Queue: 4 jobs
Job 1
Amino acid sequence: MCIPNLLTSAAGAVILVIKKREVEKKQKYQDLAADLTKTYPGFKVVVTPIVLGDLGTIGDLKKHLNTGRIMNAQQINKFVQREVLCSAIHIIRRHLMAE
């Protein structure tokens, strides 16, 4: 198997995992959305799953940016990616200090 094919299949696997997590999150929060809709009948409640990968990759946040559902989504995107990467660096540092 050549390197480009390996990278393509790895990227495809990551996309499948992110899609699966988005479906799980939507299902998980549907009851909360229903309760909020009953509590606040004048408002529309939309479940917007945001899935973070271990390297700061984000699922379909760009799709939600275009719908206007998330305010300041670009700042949120930058902040979340930075936090994920900082957490990964912190874990690596703790591991290296333990050796």
Job 2
Amino acid sequence: MMEGAGPGQTKSLTQAMHLAWLAFVQNGDPNHSGMPHWSTFEAAHEVMRFDTESRVEPGLLDNESALWSSIGISKLSDLERAFAYTPAGVH
């Protein structure tokens, strides 16, 4: 990834990632005009490979997905609940 990339390519990648984060923070969707369309993970199990030419790729491998499912985590909301932290005395 990015091996031998010139300054222009590095800047382009940085900008694409920056805009994805900004879009995500603003509306919960990282998509913007400077990158390929990226479906929600729960809908398509795809991940974005940010590179000199960013692309959408298949998400978790079957055995990784099976591991998460084996402990009861099949959706992002399950993962958020599993790692939720409530300080003592707060309900």
Job 3
Amino acid sequence: MLTVQNLSHDPFYNQAFEEYIYQTYQDDDIFLLWQNSPAVVVGSYQNICREVHVEALRQRGIPVVRRISGGRSCRGQAARVLGKRPRRPVRSRSVRHPL
């Protein structure tokens, strides 16, 4: 199992780093551990305007970041440590290569 501790707190970098790790090590079980500065992270299938109040977040300087996986929105705080369970990512061909 590949274990990675990402020391960056930048939510945009962290999402890009996660995608890079999963694309580069497709045949490995991966455990990622990281911490974001305040941000709202939304799933790949979510409508951002329905999930969050974009203008209120903009006024507070809190970015909205889209992740490559599905799932619900989550609010990240500086004191919150995030991790991914060891597993191989499941990729949907329709999302990665639209018709």
Job 4
Amino acid sequence: MLQDYIFSLLTGYVDEPPAGVTLGEGQAYNPYFPGGALSMVQQLFNDSVQYEDGAYRGGGHVPCALLAAIKLALQHEYPTRLTLTCTVVV
């Protein structure tokens, strides 16, 4: 499933590639990316979001919220909802 792949891609970075894997300059290793060598460094970290109430939501909270927002944006009726919402609010 695409959602599982994107979640794994966002959270699957490892500090060191396995033995025998050579990375180029500026590359990171992510076993969920075909070939493992990815030219995008890790974007999400466990402590990247601070909540006002001090609650810790774990490392999977931000990627799940991000995937939900992407899924909503890709729904075919989203532009209509957004236009309607903006019209009502304004």
